[in-house]
Amino acid sequence: MTPEMLDALRAPFDGDAVRTRSEVTCPACKVGGCSAHRIAPCEECGGMLTTAHVHLDYVGHAHVTARLLDVDPEWTWEPLALTPDGLPALQDGALWIRLTIGGVTRLGVGDAVGHRGGRALKEMIGDAIRNAAMRFGVALDMWMRQPDAAADPAPADPPPTSEPAAAERDERADANHLRGRIRDITKGRGRSASQTAADFTKWSKKGTQFLRASPAELAEYLDHLLQHGGKP
Length: 232
Hints:
Elements: H1 3-10, E1 18-24, H2 27-31, E2 39-41, E3 48-50, E4 53-59, H3 61-71, E5 76-79, E6 90-91, E7 94-101, E8 104-110, H4 117-134, H5 140-144, H6 166-188, H7 193-203, H8 215-228
Antiparallel strand pairs: 1-4, 2-3, 5-7, 6-7, 7-8
């Protein structure tokens, strides 16, 4: 493994490779029956899910595979253990693998929550390769932004009030207006709502999410769109 290979593995991915997914941050919401958060439509992703969620950038299996091939065409992976039938062995529904790039081998683990049968195994393999590739620096910046729900649980929704304070109401209205203008511009440039959100987070120096940005941040990004074409 050379320094040049490491640099190539850690190179940022362009916008077309970056996707966005929703991640529930409240353990109680994940199993159902949470009284601290409500189910509501999300303006950013359009999904109907708990308010205790965030949107995370990630790179799919195909783009990670392409990166590995670019750096080392002879990269390989293998299961950490096999069953008596010679198939990959699972531990508590997870697949552990060895990923070898440039002669260096590191471990990774993947799961496939919500999938069954052959689809589940394919999901596990892709997830394990992405996880192991992260140990080499692939998309490491995106992994660093993932929340630790156990250490930093999502705050409960505030109790309903009859009317928000005037200053808060005005700030919310300004932010919604700016988000609307940004979406109109990016939609005209062929960017979806999730891609716009991912572009904003990548552009933000603090990694701020689109729906949580202040009017000042949104106004600055709007100016960025108008002046520079919105490239992160």
